[in-house]
């Protein structure tokens, strides 16, 4: 067994085990809802490369450790407290985090063996990054998926520009700008999940993956598929989403919502009015550009954007640093966005986000194909 699991460095925040042909990765940072640290990203990357090269391993499954007496969490994102601290300290590990995280996302999308994401509970931000490239994305009625980055003055990264752009109509713009959480039915309908397994079947399913006979990748997949059911229905007003979020500009989206006389539009407008105006503008441009990009080019673009998110204005004036401060450091939930309104957003600053700080030959993700 020892040759199947390389040394891990995340102090137990990533657990690895092998059952027959199946390699299992368990996210085990429970106090942070399994949010990813740099060490966890490195451990996942090492495991996936090791198992890709090992003939005994025919499939991989990733899941969140159970939270005793609490709702489940697959992965709530990246380690935003680390982002804040590293940005203010000028720590180069901040850049390493995003370069290595995006490489991991790319590896999962192109993994040579079936990769199964057991997306029970909270799946946000970085959790979407390590699940959306899966061959099989498994949801329950407890699954809540979101890309909530505009709420902390960031944008949907980890390939989010690309996979949200693949959603039908203008669902991608809506999810990206608002950070709206969605359940299993909508996620499956919009291509962000594959199958639904009711929560009552998860303990047996996971026990069978861990301890039952798993002689082949087909058997691993069958362990999940034999428990699949129809997800509970949703009442998301898709026509309204398309009407408002298909508008050509961010001001036009807000104006369309303001003119609508219904509760959904009022709530949605209120949500957007709490987000970073600058980063909403960046986000809208990202999703619309990503419709015409492949994943590698999208990840390179996102790496440019995340560099600028922390460095374009300097860390002390970064919208992202301010957003994390308000949410997770001071917890006053009152970010001081600059500018405070969409009308004040400088188009030249938005354009500057999309200018790469690196020549192509020097880009941190230059070798992604």
TrEMBL record:
- Which InterPro entries does the record cross-reference, listed alphabetically? ClpP/crotonase-like_dom_sf, ECH_dom, HIBYL-CoA-H
Species: Pelomonas parva
Q: Which PANTHER family match?
A: 3-HYDROXYISOBUTYRYL-COA HYDROLASE (PTHR43176:SF6), 3-HYDROXYISOBUTYRYL-COA HYDROLASE-RELATED (PTHR43176)
Classify the source by domain of life.
Bacteria
Q: Which UniProt keywords apply?
A: Hydrolase
Q: What is this protein called?
A: Enoyl-CoA hydratase/isomerase family protein
Q: Where is the Enoyl-CoA hydratase/isomerase domain?
A: 23-354
- In the UniProt record, the signal sequence range is none
